[in-house]
Amino acid sequence: MRYKLSAPLQPKAVIELPASKSISNRALIIHALGRGTTVPANLSDCDDTRVMIQALTENHDVIDILAAGTAMRFLTAYLCVTPGTRVITGTARMQQRPIQILVNALRELGAQIEYAGNEGFPPLRITGGELNGQEVTLKGDVSSQYISALLMIGPVLKNGLTLHLTGEIISRPYINLTLQLMTDFGAKAEWISENCIRVAPHPYSDTAFRVESDWSAASYWYQIAALSSQSSIKLKGLFEKSYQGDSEEQRCLPNWASQRNLPTETSYSAKPVNIPNDWTKILSTYPT
Length: 288
Prior knowledge:
Helix content is 30%, strand content 22%. It is built from eight helices and twelve strands. The strands form three sheets. A four-stranded mixed sheet has the order 1-10-12-11. The chain has a four-stranded mixed sheet with strand order 2-3-5-4, with helices on one face. Strands 6-7-9-8 form a four-stranded mixed sheet. Strand 8 and strand 9 (196-199) form a beta hairpin. Helix 1 packs parallel to helix 2 (47-58), helix 1 runs parallel beside helix 3 and helix 1 packs across helix 6. The chain is globular.
């Protein structure tokens, strides 16, 4: 069977983009660490976020995050500073995914973590409490989710956190995203050198927060517009001053007009443009 696909010559649409999963998951952890009462708005409806919400609200002794890798990493750190003993587990495939780098770093801070199965892999048995450690060193090329998991618990640590990153840092945009969100919720966290971040022992505040739409999802519509002779596409829920690395699209493809809808929310309307040669700032959208 053969399928023929053809693009519309003059696409016209108003698109309700999905919320950013990266921002949603970080905002939920920060909100929980701050014991906030104002739940972040416009949360993602993806599996990772649904699992995160369930884990944070149901308070079970055994937390099954299924195949949600982000939830496994962020919740592992979160549980280390949350009173009580819990087991965090996942699917059979999740139990084959290494987590030793994060566990070792948390243990350096004083966390009580045991492997409930194979050494170096989930499930984990975690007894949460006050951590007295304040300094950790990681390689800069590890998963940014390990780094973000540690950073987000920094404000609630007795002595704060100093995080040293050695070698090349390959995921700086995601680290900066985490730091920006922490700051939005009242934390004091910043780069104090090219390879070192300091997080002060300063509690999060209860903050009204709206999750931005996902710039990665927006990239497909950018390309449709770029490949069309004429188009009118409005992308809703994007912020003019976005923390997402993929927001660099609006600078790589500059012929997009913006219209402010809310104090921070902007719609973008498209006109066809030439596709740029340099995509180094938005690598996650390069395949589109």
